[in-house]
Amino acid sequence: LTDGEVGNETEILKAVRANVKDSRFFCFGVGSSVNHYLIQGIGKHGRGAASTVLTNSLSNAEELRKPIDEFIGFIDAPVLTDITIDWGGLDVTDPNPELIADVFKGKPVTVIAQYHTAGSGVITINARKGGVPWSYTIPVTLPFNEPDNAALAPIWARAKIERLTDERVLSTEERSAQIGEEIIQTALDFRLVSEGTSFVAVDDMTIIGAGRPRTVKVAVDKPLDHAGE
Predict the structure, then answer these.
(1) What are the sequence ranges of the domains in the chain?
(2) pLDDT over 60 (residue 137)
(3) What is the pTM of this model?
């Protein structure tokens, strides 16, 4: 139980990732000023789930009872756990995410990967259902070229950047630098915004007004349930 206002989120996420093993971490945040990065990060690296409820009244138990009961019911009965994918010898690389989350009712899990050689095969999804081993096979044909699915490439690239960003948080300084370069290269290859790339708008007007600098104060909204100034 925490207000989330900690300064060592990276250490916490590293501890979660290192100790998750067969356990699952579930986080529940209340209010508009919670530490979403920490809550979502623990849920992701802990192979569980996270949820946040926005409310004006943190002391209203009745207002919180329903979403809390729904969250407990949601996490109490996973549909599939310990999911792995056997690509059946297909030339598939860079699946994202690498560590597949459990499947809960009403929360689909998407895995997107890259392939380099056209061909046909059978993909097998292995998991545990109700604690019992379970598998499902899917015959697939990977075409040499499929222009109608051009939108999948940037989706895969975004998923890869997200995975690398998560990995970078938990990596060594040397590995972090390598991941940073890989993120930038992936973003450039697929023309995406990332932590190391951005779109730049160039304005033909080089002088604004009389050419003198101006200071503009921009108002920032405070959290909904924050009473301070």
Answers:
(1) 9-75, 78-145, 147-216
(2) yes
(3) 0.75
